[in-house]
Design brief:
heterodimer; A: 258 residues; alpha/beta; Rossmann fold; six-stranded mixed sheet; 9 helices; 12 strands; B: 372 residues; five-stranded mixed sheet; 13 helices; 40% helix; 22% strand
Chain lengths: 258, 372
Amino acid sequence: MSSPVLSLRGVSKSFGAVRALAHVDLDVRTHEVVAVVGDNGSGKSTLAGVLSGALVPDAGQVELDGRPVTLASPGLARALGIAAVFQDGALCENLDVVENLFLGQEVTAGPLLDEVAMEKEAWSLLNKLAARVPSVRVPVGALTGGQRQAVAIARTLLGDPRVVVLDEPTAALGITQTAEVLNLVERLRDDGHAVVLISSSIVDVQAVADSIVVLRLGRTNGVFDADQVSYEDLIAAMTGATPVGRRTRPARREENVT
Amino acid sequence: MSAVQQRGSLTQVELAGVTGLSPATVSNIVKELTAIGLLHTAPTSRSGRRAQQVTLARNLGLVAGIHFDTRSLRVALSDVAHRIVAEQRMPLAPDHRADAGLERAALLLTEMVESVDASLQEVLAVGVGVPAPVDVRTGLVSTVGILRGWDGVVVPDVLEQRLGIPVYVDNDVNLGALAEVRLGAARGSRDIVYLRVSYGVGGGLIIGGDVFHGRSGIAGEIGHMIMADDGPLCRCGNRGCLETLIGGAVLLAQLQPSHGHLTMRDMITRAKEGDPDCRRVIADAGTHLGRAAANVCNLFDPELVVVGGQLAAAGPLLLDPLRAVLAERVLPSTAGPVDVVEAELGAAAEVRGALSVALDRASIAGALAVTG
């Protein structure tokens, strides 16, 4: 059993009177997809913010390889090997795929951009994800939702991060694009990345996750083994029909504390 | 005509061999059918000689194949010449439900048809494979408990209403068997046993070139051959079924304490990299599978045993122990031991079989009436 790459320990975050996260624990291992599901307002996006360095928690610790770290900014998180893709993908519609991938981290040859190297790297990244993009020289605005998501994910892979955080990657996508994104998630996992998949679609989450964390009103309302848990149990945990703190893997959690 | 329909494309010489007609007759028939736009010929070469590749004309329509597996859904769209024009795979939740699954498949198919600039009217038929025994006459999932959430579902009723296209359903392993015998590793054989080892374990029997279904579609369910009277309980309600020994979940559970949460792909990759535990688990699976397969071989004496499903990707790690058990337990024959081969179509076998069934059933606009 490998130890977690990234852990949250008792993380809390408030916005004024709103407690968006309260004492949340989360363990992420390489080669594993941890899904976070929850209703609207359950704290999913805040959690994504904390993991990616966009938000600094009020209390609790973020541990990387067992050592406490402070993710003060997304840039710092990236440098530590944690990359995030947000719902909108944050792509520039008017730039082509290569320009988007290397925006702010262009490869240069002397004073000039090394377009050839960047294009090669772009293709190798997209091929690694088995992403179907017609050309790396088309503007991102001309791509479908699924292809854009693929480009956004490919961009996070540039620095070869160990943890990839995906916030609602299948929201607002058609069925074909959803299929492509789910295939991408499987691919990331097989390549040995630790993946945090944040989503409100239980069906999508169950399809690819190894373990599922249910958030409810900012608290962890259950950690489930994705192979064992039923759709009904997840719904129950999301809506508060089961007691708080139900855990299906107690043995494994204790092991990790030591 | 039906020879071309079954095999997708072949040369005129092969066509003569398959149909038993003289090459000259075949050449005349092909010329006639090409003239009325049913066949398409293209020059090619076969063993260094010039030959005519014969395929069905593209404009005759499209057929679709849908394969529901335990953990994934695969939809493919092909023209009547078996040329795949679009294919999409999607992971599914464990224990997925019929209503949500069929809805996703229907949506996916509709989007795929649109993506090739066609309309649903051009789709002649849909073949569907589900991982449970199916009564092929009615399309009813005919067992209880094998595929929770699908019990008693009449798949064609749901899909035909949704798509407005004739739908034909069969067990996915039977479809895989059909695809392997028509297009894959067992091309040219007439009697084969196809074993599919994935999250579930299944078998398909091809007798005389056709799928053998039995009374209600349960034929070939090797996964529920009882291997140990007092073995673990199976989802079917019996004890000690082959699936309780070598089903994907069982294999992975053996590795869970030492290796954590793995998928089938992880296990196979690690076994190939030399992980001794993963190798052992796969080898044991091969041995168990061999014991069950030996009984089947003694009963049916097939020309070939084809092994497919995700675990087949382990190659010799699985097949060598399987071959050893077969050599030991199958009645010795003057023809030598039965051949065991890895499936050629891999994960796409079942969906290709679904396409084949759809093609067989599709009435190509009176074309068959023309040829008599």
